[in-house]
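Let us work through a complete example step by step.
Step 1: write down the sequence.
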Amino acid sequence: MNLDSLNDLPDWDDDHFKKFDDAEGEEWKPNPTRDAAKALYQQWRQVMTMLQGALDSDDFKEDNSFATEQCAMVMGDAFEVGAKIRSSETGSLYILKMENAAVIRKNAQFVASSLLSFAMQNLIEEKYAEAIRSEIDSFRELFKQWVSTFQKDEFEDEWGLFI
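Step 2: predict the structure and record it as tokens.
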């Protein structure tokens, strides 16, 4: 693990997203969705820092163990949350934002429930699982604020899910 950055998610870079803005010359306008996404991403980075610390245990490093595989799945889903938050800000289509939001919700719930399982198996201490789950609860509140900023557009979801 890189000690300069206690999690492996990249920093949020506002300049990175400017190239995806639809209207040139409109960069000065407030962007509540992007601001909410940034806060959400920063909170998830906090979750990742704690998660990586909790799962950096010898119990998760045994070759071919069930715990190692479970840890890898949890970390994979956790990293995907960060990627989906960032990628949701590279376009403005409502359907794509909702698809990303659905994946983020599913993955965050999986991470939270896996922590309970790890604690029950004594792979991590219960107090660490609860601390991380508390951070995920804070993430959930920011998630609700973020999703509330989505603007429905004229494009139709061909699958009929996000209508």
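Step 3: interpret the result. The mean pLDDT is 86.
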